[in-house]
Structures are given as structure tokens and as C-alpha cells.
Amino acid sequence: MGAAERWAKQVEAKKAIHEVVIAPRGQRRSFREAAEEFLRTRVGNRSTTAHYGYSLRNHVYGFEVAAGVAFGDLADVEVSREHVKSLVRHLTDRFAPNTVASIFIAVAAVFTDLRKSGVIERSPCANVPLPEHVESRVFVPVTLQQLDTLASRLHGPWQIAPYLGHAAGLRIGEALAVRLDQLVEGEEGWVLRITRQVLGRSGWRR
């Protein structure tokens, strides 16, 4: 095979690569679009999906990776490890390590889905260091007398809030969604079934 023929074959190969790999990327999605599609099609616990959505929309999409360039507006195939590291640094300056890890998991889940779908070859979240976990302080439970004192200082129906938090271990979103129809009578008496919660600033309930 002569030099001219080899050159011609290289040109044809590059053209094929352009048509099959590069050209389709002209219709790239933004990371926001890819993430929203991931949330719409994700199979799994709905509360986990809702948490992912809250983290992405409130803490990730709007983060500026450069002047006037938001993380959510980057093309899904163009987000680099440096972009993710920059996001983690930004979050670390504002949140506790556990919260940073929780938001990072949502971002990583999107890129894992993109990798499994063949959109990207490697997740930019791979081996990105996270802030060290800080052990929580020792929890000292309140006494019944302290609980009664706290409840007595609240107004009307709010007096039940300390008991719900202490006895049932409800998070704020779950406590805000409690209604009388969640009380059901069982063999051992009345039982409170937690079936919904309020999420986010909009007060959305599931």
C-alpha cells in the first residue's frame, strides 16, 4: 500500500469518526437537561429521587464554574473532573461534610447513568475527594420533665411537636405533613403511620 493510499484511508477513517461520534454531539444536552431526564426515568425509591432533584436544582445547576457559565448549562459530555472538584470546594465552604457528600451523590448518580448509557466513557466524579466526615457530638436525650416543659411553652396544637420528634424521631418535613388520617387503630392501640412529608420551599407533599 502506497503512502497516498494510506493517507486516503486515514482521511476516510477520520471522516467516519466525525460522522459517528463527533457529529451527533452537535445536538448535545446540557447537564441540567440530562439530569432532569435522569430524574424522570429513574427507577427506585421516590423519596431518593426527590432528594436528588432538590440537591441538583438548589445547589448544583446554578453554580458558576466560570464567569457567566453555570454548571447546569455545561454540555453533559463536557463536564470535567475539575468542574466537579470546583463544585465540591464551593459546597465545602458552605455546608457540613455530610451535606456535601449527599449533594455529590446526586451529581455522581447522573454521571453513572450517562456512563451506563454510553454517553460518556468515564464519570468526572471518579476519585474526586470529599471533605472528611466529622463525627457527631454525643447525643444526650432529654428527660420526660424537660420534654413536658418544652411542650408547655408552645401554643395549642404545636404542643404535640416535641413528642413527635422525641418519640417518633420524625424529621421536620415528616412532622409538618402529619394529619389525623395517619392515625390508625392497631392491636396494641393507636399507631401513627408516616406516609408523606413536605419537601422544599414550595411545600410540595408526597
From TrEMBL:
InterPro entries documented for this protein: CB, DNA_brk_join_enz, Integrase_recombinase_N
Keyword DNA-binding annotated: yes
Gene3D superfamilies, per the entry: 1.10.150.130
Protein keywords: DNA-binding
Record's keyword annotation contains Ribosomal protein: no
SUPFAM superfamilies: DNA breaking-rejoining enzymes
Domain Core-binding (CB): 29-115
The name this protein goes by in its record: Core-binding (CB) domain-containing protein
Originating species: Thermobifida fusca (strain YX)
